[in-house]
Amino acid sequence: MNFITVNVTGYSGADMKQLCSEAAMIPVRNIVDSSSFDLVSFSAEEIRPICFSDFELAMRSVRPTVVAEDLERYQAWNKQYGSFVSE
């Protein structure tokens, strides 16, 4: 989990949702891509749990959308109008 928290700089909430969805689909794609895949007899128990490497792979395709300028603008707005106390 530390890897994820350290490497998600610039990811919005929507980006994080997409990242988790992508990581969750990797084990499903592994089964679908296997030569023994049979949609008729496919069960949820056949899907392996999500693991660390799934998040690493997902981070290759799901890129952060928040840039430094956006963060600076949000911080300036918060300083002027917001009630959130930042460091």
From TrEMBL:
<dbReference type="InterPro" id="IPR050304">
    <property type="entry name" value="MT-severing_AAA_ATPase"/>
</dbReference>
<feature type="domain" description="AAA ATPase AAA+ lid">
    <location>
        <begin position="10"/>
        <end position="36"/>
    </location>
</feature>
<keyword id="KW-0547">Nucleotide-binding</keyword>
<dbReference type="GO" id="GO:0016887">
    <property type="term" value="F:ATP hydrolysis activity"/>
</dbReference>
<protein>
    <submittedName>
        <fullName>Bm9096, isoform b</fullName>
    </submittedName>
</protein>
<dbReference type="Pfam" id="PF17862">
    <property type="entry name" value="AAA_lid_3"/>
</dbReference>
<comment type="similarity">
    <text>Belongs to the AAA ATPase family.</text>
</comment>
<dbReference type="Pfam" id="PF09336">
    <property type="entry name" value="Vps4_C"/>
</dbReference>
<dbReference type="InterPro" id="IPR041569">
    <property type="entry name" value="AAA_lid_3"/>
</dbReference>
<keyword id="KW-0067">ATP-binding</keyword>
<feature type="domain" description="Spastin/Vps4 C-terminal">
    <location>
        <begin position="48"/>
        <end position="82"/>
    </location>
</feature>
<dbReference type="GO" id="GO:0005524">
    <property type="term" value="F:ATP binding"/>
</dbReference>
<dbReference type="InterPro" id="IPR015415">
    <property type="entry name" value="Spast_Vps4_C"/>
</dbReference>
